[in-house]
């Protein structure tokens, strides 16, 4: 495919089942439409380089043809060859190219990029990949998966593996993106579940359950209407490993009490999946009730935090909606599904209170929505003067969403 290329993919939240999923209970993750990663691929003046520019994490690195020529990655290789274990010969070839990078975020972003590029783009040079995200990095909202999905879609097109200008991404093409983005996630996380990249690829929601053989069974929940919500990032640091370990210790000490709680969380996820598959105004209240119950169950096993309870208490006292922590808990993020009768004035007061009194970060967004998308070449060319400045360090999230957000910006994204 000719340049430029522009792709995008969403972040995610866990709606039901965090922590209980570790014990093989079902759980649901859903896309967050306005928290997205965008990737712009353009030609460079220097035909000898490949550049990755990711200003959100302070990364701008160029690799020259001489360096890249040391990589002997075969072209057009199947994703299945990498899904179990990353290619050791390719890893060894990439290591010298990654040495100059400092910081875990920069290293792993570059590792993901070079691995996918080497496998899918072969010897193509003279290209720049610019990444910009409206999702907070490292907040447990699937930002790394959305980056991997953007890369898989872009390099798949650039390398000629995907139809250059279809009117819609086919199931086969989406499966290609999902498989290769999972490999990108392996570069970043080592042993990902595959859930985050599946949500970022296909969009809407995914019901998932870990199987006894350690594989993850996924069931897509598609075509439900976006659910208005406020997502709040407390910015309180937390350790997923410590929190998961705490629940495991608790179930060891109190198995008769904690096991039924985890089972109940699994039942919540199964019931929630049925509601989402047939969501309408009459059963939205049932979904909200499940959200409130799940938060209470998570609190009972020690997954909440006083900072998260601030959000829950405020949403209850203002009758704004139903709030639940999302992810490991102990800080991090919570979402509030808005009541249908919540006024704009109260919503703004809710957000303003959290931002000014607690220094939290809030996002007005929708639960669910499209997965990965790309912009046709003609559409990019017509809007390139608006698009290119958005990938500079100085560009802010509101400008990014106003100009590019699918469903809001007016651009004719293909998904």
From TrEMBL:
Pfam families: GHMP_kinases_C, GHMP_kinases_N. Gene3D superfamilies: 3.30.230.10, GHMP kinase, C-terminal domain. Keywords: ATP-binding, Cytoplasm, Kinase, Lipid biosynthesis, Lipid metabolism, Magnesium, Nucleotide-binding, Steroid biosynthesis, Steroid metabolism, Sterol biosynthesis, Sterol metabolism, Transferase. Residues 122-203 form the GHMP kinase N-terminal domain. SUPFAM superfamilies: GHMP Kinase, C-terminal domain, Ribosomal protein S5 domain 2-like. Transmembrane segments: none annotated. Its EC number is 2.7.1.36. Its main location: cytoplasm. It is found in: Cytoplasm. GO terms for molecular function: ATP binding; mevalonate kinase activity. It catalyses: (R)-mevalonate + ATP = (R)-5-phosphomevalonate + ADP + H(+). Belongs to the GHMP kinase family. Mevalonate kinase subfamily. This is Mevalonate kinase. It comes from Lachancea lanzarotensis.
